[in-house]
User: Fold this.
Amino acid sequence: MALSSFDIDAPRWDQSTFMGRLKHFFNITDCTTALLSDARLDEAKALVESCRAGSIPPGTTQEQLYYAKKLYDSAFHPDTGDRMNLIGRMSFQVPGGMAITGAMLQFYRTVPAVVFWQWVNQSFNALVNYTNRNAASTITPKQIGVAYFTATSTALATAVGLNLYTKRAPPLVARWVPFAAVAAANCVNIPMMRQQEILSGIAVSDENGNKLGHSTRAAVKGITQVVISRITMAAPGMIILPIIMQRLEKYKFMQRITYLHGPIQVMLVGGFLIFMVPAACSLFPQRCSMAVSKLEPELRDSIRSQYGDAVQCVYFNKGL
Assistant:
């Protein structure tokens, strides 16, 4: 294929299938890209923009273009093109998530430890949610503060409440309290951090990218899918790992190395997240679609009056 006609924005893998999306997200959630310097990322962005403009530097190979697009997708926001903060990138989900989740699973017995690690986790989640929002919808510092406070309070109330409630329950039930808190907080944190999209609507366009208006129903659909994806991302590690540790801790060799239980859990969580981060991101297409017939009556009528039956679906970035 002649590079002069190379479409760098065309999906490398079929985004209509789960396996195609899985390959895409394995590519852009590669945690080694989080180690690259801003200068290297800016070089990749410059190459992507040059390719879009039709002026590919001489000697550039197709693999170099693919790698530049991988770095661009992993580090720059799809709506604004701005470089995202390191901690909020999906490529940082494995190292950041494994450290925090491992700590939550290890230090679940006392209320102070539960409070501290749930606060750390919700601070991390709030930054990730803000970074991966649909940037076409603005959010004020006050709304960010309210979202952060509400989600953190929900996580702490769930974790501390269940921690006290499970004092007399089987030990394994107590180990699952962190997951219950994380799931409950995700149901609050993500909608609250993206409340402006729910209140004012999310920008929707036709298949060619022509903006058609704003839809609150599309926003609710996209945010719901993100909540499901985030809970799915955490579930295997936070449900299965406690079962594994419960059994391992019965062995004498594990009882002799209690100081290593924390690092062991961090590494095992990392093993789960290496697969679950891209798998959870792949559950739904990032470029979400919705039938015009399911939009709000006002927007639906506006689209039909302008385009008739030519536009059957609208598209929008649901975020991650």
About this structure: The first strand starts at residue 202 and ends at 205. The chain has a mean pLDDT of 85. The beta strands are 202-205, 211-215, 287-291, 313-317. The two ends are 32 Å apart (CA to CA).
